[in-house]
Structure formats: structure tokens, C-alpha cells
Design brief:
Layout: H1 2-10, E1 17-24, E2 38-48, E3 51-57, H2 66-79, E4 85-91
Parallel strand pairs: 3-4
Antiparallel strand pairs: 1-2, 2-3
Amino acid sequence: MHSHLKRQIDNLHDPNFRAEVSRLKGHEDDVRHGTKGSIRIDVIENAGGGTVCVYDIKTGTSGLSPARMAEIAHAAFKHFPNTQGIIVTEVRPRR
């Protein structure tokens, strides 16, 4: 699911809509997927007007804890530093 979605989003070539962004805690730059200590953002969208939306794709039974949502929001802020509001939401595809 994740790799299929990444290909679709990458094909849009939109710097405000990205998939599978990995950030190392406390650093400003993207890192390679799977880097130890990194946080992966499934999909991040700079929606404009100071709002960034983060979509966390869930295919299993686990959900997002408040602590994990805060961690993802912090990484999203590092990606778009002029952000004034971040919305983090679970997405559960049916197909």
C-alpha cells in the first residue's frame, strides 16, 4: 500500500505533496528510509494558508497514540517550518 501510494504521489512532482518522508529526530534534512532513529511520515501535504496535513496510512489494527501524533507533527513542522497548524490523521484504505 505504502509503495504504491508513494509512486502515485511522486509522479505528481508537487513539492507540497510528498510521500514516505523520513526525518531524523532533531535534524532538519530528510534521511534515507529506514535510517535508525528516523520518523517516517507516510504522506505530508502543505495545504496552504499555514496548514499542513499528515496522513498516516494504517493497514493493521494499531492506531496512532497522542505521543506518536505529536512526534509526527514535530517532524512535519521541520519539513514545512512556516506552518501554523498541523493536522495528523489516520487513513484506513479499504482496498
